[in-house]
């Protein structure tokens, strides 16, 4: 599966702890991340992360493009709800695309753990079925 790992500045340490805790699960998947988050994960684990640009510089949009092209299966996006983000429209667009395309997205640690445990159990078979019902080009 293709999995994106994104974390706002004040959530990066939390993402590193998450990646360390679930490294055995994550290592079997293709990982993508925004700039600094991806780098920090690679520095603290043996995981390989395809790094996009930093979120404010377009990384969220690059991941959004993968979602729009049905190339992303799961997103862990540890957001900081108490800090205004200069690229909030990009974040909102990414979350909206996940809703449209049926891509599971976790925005906090509790939901991230539920999704990673489901991944570990192989509970994402519904994605294969969901692909049949996704809107095609021009159907939105």
UniProtKB/TrEMBL annotation:
<comment type="similarity">
    <text>Belongs to the methylglyoxal synthase family.</text>
</comment>
<dbReference type="GO" id="GO:0005829">
    <property type="term" value="C:cytosol"/>
</dbReference>
<feature type="binding site">
    <location>
        <position position="87"/>
    </location>
    <ligand>
        <name>substrate</name>
    </ligand>
</feature>
<feature type="active site" description="Proton donor/acceptor">
    <location>
        <position position="60"/>
    </location>
</feature>
<dbReference type="InterPro" id="IPR036914">
    <property type="entry name" value="MGS-like_dom_sf"/>
</dbReference>
<dbReference type="Pfam" id="PF02142">
    <property type="entry name" value="MGS"/>
</dbReference>
<feature type="binding site">
    <location>
        <begin position="34"/>
        <end position="37"/>
    </location>
    <ligand>
        <name>substrate</name>
    </ligand>
</feature>
<feature type="binding site">
    <location>
        <position position="8"/>
    </location>
    <ligand>
        <name>substrate</name>
    </ligand>
</feature>
<dbReference type="GO" id="GO:0019242">
    <property type="term" value="P:methylglyoxal biosynthetic process"/>
</dbReference>
<feature type="binding site">
    <location>
        <begin position="54"/>
        <end position="55"/>
    </location>
    <ligand>
        <name>substrate</name>
    </ligand>
</feature>
<comment type="function">
    <text>Catalyzes the formation of methylglyoxal from dihydroxyacetone phosphate.</text>
</comment>
<dbReference type="GO" id="GO:0008929">
    <property type="term" value="F:methylglyoxal synthase activity"/>
</dbReference>
<dbReference type="InterPro" id="IPR004363">
    <property type="entry name" value="Methylgl_synth"/>
</dbReference>
<dbReference type="InterPro" id="IPR018148">
    <property type="entry name" value="Methylglyoxal_synth_AS"/>
</dbReference>
<dbReference type="InterPro" id="IPR011607">
    <property type="entry name" value="MGS-like_dom"/>
</dbReference>
<feature type="binding site">
    <location>
        <position position="12"/>
    </location>
    <ligand>
        <name>substrate</name>
    </ligand>
</feature>
<keyword id="KW-0456">Lyase</keyword>
<protein>
    <recommendedName>
        <fullName>Methylglyoxal synthase</fullName>
        <ecNumber>4.2.3.3</ecNumber>
    </recommendedName>
</protein>
<feature type="domain" description="MGS-like">
    <location>
        <begin position="1"/>
        <end position="140"/>
    </location>
</feature>
């Amino acid at each position: 599966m293709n999995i994106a790992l994104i974390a706002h500045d004040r959530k990066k340490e939390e993402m590193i702890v998450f990646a360390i805790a679930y490294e055995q699960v994550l290592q079997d998947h293709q990982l993508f991340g925004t700039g600094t988050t991806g780098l920090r994960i690679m520095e603290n684990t043996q995981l390989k992360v395809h790094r996009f640009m930093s979120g404010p510089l377009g990384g969220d949009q690059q991941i959004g493009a993968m979602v729009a092209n049905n190339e992303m299966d799961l997103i862990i996006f540890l957001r900081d709800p108490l800090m205004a983000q200069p690229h909030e429209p990009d974040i909102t667009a990414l979350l909206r695309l996940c809703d449209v395309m049926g891509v599971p997205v976790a925005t906090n640690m509790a939901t991230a753990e539920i999704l990673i445990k489901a991944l570990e159990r192989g509970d994402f078979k519904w994605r294969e079925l969901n692909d049949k019902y996704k809107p095609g080009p021009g159907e939105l």
